[in-house]
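During the second half of the funding period, the structural biology subgroup turned its attention to how the target accommodates small molecules. The most pressing case was alpha-D-allopyranose, which had performed well in the primary screen but for which no bound structure existed. We therefore specified the complex as follows and requested a full 3D prediction, including the ligand pose.
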Amino acid sequence: MSNNLDEIRIKGLEYLKSDFGDEAVEKSIEYTEKFIVEVPGWQVWEGFGGGGRFEGGGTGGAARNTEEIAEDVGLIHKLTNSTPTVGLHILWFLSKDGAAGDFEVALRVKEEFEKNNLKIGSVSPTYFVGDSEDGSFTSQNILVRKNYIEQTLFGAKVAAELSDGLLTLWFPDGTNYPGQRELKDKIGLLRDSIIEVWEKVPEDQKGKLKRILVEYKVFEPGTYSTTIPDWATARELSRLFGEKGGVLVDLGHHHHSTNIEQIVANMIAFDIRGGFHFNTRYAADDDHSVQADYMMAKIFHELLRGDVIYNAEPSKNWVFALDQMARAEQRIPSILKSVDALKRSIAKAVLVDMSELSELQKAKDIIGSNVEFERALLNTDTSPIVMEAYRRQGLHPVPLIAYAESGYQQKIEKKRA
Ligand code: AFD
Ligand code: MN
Ligand code: MN
């Protein structure tokens, strides 16, 4: 199997060089090598149903606690050198009683991650756990709102003091029936609660926070109305956090027909701090492993052309995380596949010959520009580039194979049965 991989890689690189030139291929390998993505702690964790909506524990072996999450993501990082941080939900992973955050727990989790060459990544208050059926920041009960505001302040402290300053807010607020709540009140309470949070974050923590990203979702869990249904609402709310506020684009959170690339281009044009939750859009939700389809390559085209990846000015760079969760499949392979898909996609975007493409665009050669665009982003298999990027780091060129050969899955299924 392995010498066949070498042959595919070597001959594949030769083919790509003849198609795109040595320089473009070399640059593509470098960009692919450098691309990193955050892993959501919940993707390897047994505790959350989520994606695919099917219950059942798959073949088993899911992590039961943050120590095992750290071991699993630590292995993924060892195999890919691409996943140095883990996204955490406060009530799932940083709490003693499941109702409030606990800084002692956060300190312990930080150590568990450091033992596995990992760091805490984004910190997410868990607005959908607890008493939020009438809303979290939009509840009519001021005590419920206060509780979630407190949790958000805890999240700001952890993000500022124990992590890299990234707070990501996903509000499940919405309604299931017309008339259930006044829609204007819902968004008004959400806005007022965010204002209260930002007023209460201590100045020193504000200084250490780098991004507070507000996520949106076209619907769900509210089936009639979702209080933050689009990036415009998320953007308006994010302004309340000042220059550090931004918008989190979760790929799965859109209607099927939505042109994601246009959203990305517009956010970049308006200099909005951004981030992605990568997954697959089979349904208007997330939760499935990423696939390296044409859309993903086009998204990376916009991100690269918008200079929001590898920008020398760190505040310009978007942050990237997986957000997928399913019980049925084996967790670690589903993440390795996502990392692979993202690397394939950025590799394609780097191969686009922008000088040739812009000539064709200027000449208004519509079909010519479409063909040139598709040459790299639709028609090219960048496996050889991804394999070469891993090989140069002394890694197995196909982490999924390395994982299968490692016996780790059998080990955790036995140990965690
Ligand atoms: C759910 C939400 C949203 C959020 C994630 C983790 O839809 O995507 O980012 O949980 O909080 O998938
Ligand atoms: Mn998400
Ligand atoms: Mn989601």
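Two results from this model are relevant to the next phase. The radius of gyration is 22 Å. The chain has 17 helices and ten strands.
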